[in-house]
């Protein structure tokens, strides 16, 4: 089971997740860094996400925090890609997302 940690560390982890998702969407909008404003904003969001993650791991185990950060960020980015950009997944992609969510859930028992 996960050890108890302070709510502030969950807040930092949540901020890191939101910033990572923002960075991913902005990278898509920059069209391979052809448009400078979203490109610069993506870089700033990514740096801020890593900063927030570094604060989160002060009170959450690295493997747990990074797993949640990556897993939740990936699933949320996929959903936003589908809704904002009309991207679609094949069945294998849905299976992969399900396995990622299962893995993040299993971290609770690590």
Automatic annotation (TrEMBL):
Keywords: Cell inner membrane, Cell membrane, Membrane, Transmembrane, Transmembrane helix, Transport
A GO term, aspect molecular function: antiporter activity
Biological process per Gene Ontology, one example term: spermidine transmembrane transport
Claim: Ion transport is one of the keywords in the record: no
Recorded topology in the membrane: Multi-pass membrane protein
Cellular component annotations (GO), alphabetically ordered: plasma membrane
InterPro entries given in the database record: EmrE-like, Small_drug/metabolite_transptr, Small_multidrug_res
Keyword Transport listed: yes
Subcellular location: Cell inner membrane; Cell membrane
Taxonomy, superkingdom: Bacteria
Membrane-spanning residues: 7-27, 39-57, 64-85, 91-109
Subunit structure: Forms a complex with MdtJ.
Family that this chain belongs to: Belongs to the drug/metabolite transporter (DMT) superfamily. Small multidrug resistance (SMR) (TC 2.A.7.1) family.
Name the UniProt record assigns to this protein: Spermidine export protein MdtI
Classification lineage: Bacteria, Pseudomonadati, Pseudomonadota, Gammaproteobacteria, Lysobacterales
């Amino acid at each position: 089971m996960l050890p108890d940690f302070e709510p502030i560390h969950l807040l930092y982890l949540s901020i890191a997740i939101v910033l990572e998702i923002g960075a991913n969407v902005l990278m898509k909008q920059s069209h391979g860094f052809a448009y400078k404003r979203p490109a610069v904003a993506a870089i700033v969001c990514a740096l801020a996400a890593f900063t927030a993650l570094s604060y989160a791991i002060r009170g959450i185990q690295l493997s747990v925090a990074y797993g949640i950060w990556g897993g939740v960020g990936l699933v949320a980015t996929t959903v936003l890609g589908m809704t904002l950009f009309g991207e679609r997944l094949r069945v294998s992609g849905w299976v992969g997302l399900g396995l990622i969510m299962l893995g993040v859930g299993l971290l609770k028992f690590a």
